[in-house]
Hints:
- By secondary structure, the chain is an alpha+beta fold.
- It has one domain.
- It contains 2 helices and 9 strands.
- The protein has helices at 2-16, 63-76; strands at residues 21-22, 30-31, 35-37, 43-47, 50-59, 80-83, 86-89, 92-97, 103-111.
- Strands 3, 4, 5, 6, 7, 8 and 9 form a 7-stranded antiparallel beta sheet that branches.
- 14% of the residues are buried.
- Residues 5-17 have low confidence and may be disordered.
Amino acid sequence: xxxxxxxxxxxxxxxxxxxxxxxxxxxxxxxxxxxxxxxxxxxxxxxxxxxxxxxxxxxxxxxxxxxxxxxxxxxxxxxxxxxxxxxxxxxxxxxxxxxxxxxxxxxxxxxxxx
Length: 114
């Protein structure tokens, strides 16, 4: 899809120029500017079904602005919104949660099998 390719190229270009970061171990899920990831509570591990990733972040951004950023970004990259804060692309899933004020949680499942 041309739109998907253009968005990916733009995000990669921003990353190379040092103006965009991606969530660790992902190559096309950007970290929203203004979110700082925790270095102590994040995890990543492989299972027979795929890779499970979890990241905690802090921010002064509102939950609504974070939702809007990820909705626009993820849908342009081929993810479909299944329900509030939950997206799917093929067998991969992405979920946002807001466990407390000024905090955001990312839970990602990257399945290795179609």
